[in-house]
UniProtKB/TrEMBL annotation:
Pfam families linked to this entry: RabGAP-TBC (PF00566)
Transmembrane as UniProt keyword: no
Protein name: Rab-GAP TBC domain-containing protein
Gene Ontology MF annotations: GTPase activator activity
Claim: 4Fe-4S is one of the keywords in the record: no
Cellular component, GO annotation: Bfa1-Bub2 complex
Transmembrane segments: none
GO BP terms in the entry: negative regulation of cell cycle process
SUPFAM superfamilies, sorted: Ypt/Rab-GAP domain of gyp1p
Family statement drawn from the similarity comment of this UniProt entry: Belongs to the BUB2 family.
InterPro entries the UniProt entry points to: Rab-GAP-TBC_dom (IPR000195), Rab-GAP_TBC_sf (IPR035969)
Domain Rab-GAP TBC, chain residue ranges per copy: 1-181
Amino acid sequence: SQFRATTWKILLGALDCQAEHYFDLATRRRTPWYEKITNDTFRTLATDSSFQTRVSNAMLVRLLEAFVSPQYDFTYVQGMNVLAAPFLYTMPSELEAFMTFSRFIEFHCPLYVQPTLEGVHSGLRLLDVCLEILDLELYQYLKSKNLRAEIYAFPSVLTFCACTEPLDQVLQLWDYLLAFGVGLNILCVISQLYMMRDKLLAHPSPMALLRKLLALDAKKVILLTNVFIRDLPEVLYEKLVRHPFEKVN
């Protein structure tokens, strides 16, 4: 909706959209990452018909190619195509999608798109720490099955849950994350685990359930996340909030 698009632009500080700047970037020669980008883009939200109808593969390629041009200090990394998808779907124009996506990456989660995915791995470690505090029984059961967050939660952390259907619920969750801090996605993932905890604890091979999380229910996830925030030590909460853009121990 136009309201969501405007709100995201305000939250991201992306109200100034310079068309000439984007046109210049989008019409330059192909970057060294072009082949890798095109290998990923056609798979982006491939099962979501509304996304496929509204966002073309060419739009995704242009936006990502522009972002990894020499003018920016970023290279293309795994998951960047999925992170761009909500912006192309939500914004009225490709230009506005590029500007909001750029601000999102540069200022809100730059460590998530480093070549080593430093912020993602930091988030996964924090997920284990938080789960042990918030639900010790579930944490210990998953640990007994050799299931750490690195194994079962990588896609959800990497994409800020954009890999979990349906897209309309992802957008509602991103409304929350953009307003209160994208680092809270770690608690959003734990909320999804909590919503299926009984099934996980009863299953002899919980990874079978974790390969595909339940359909996203943004309202329930946000409510649970807000409860979990109150139960975390302040120092750990600070690490959660800051880890996408600042190194944390």
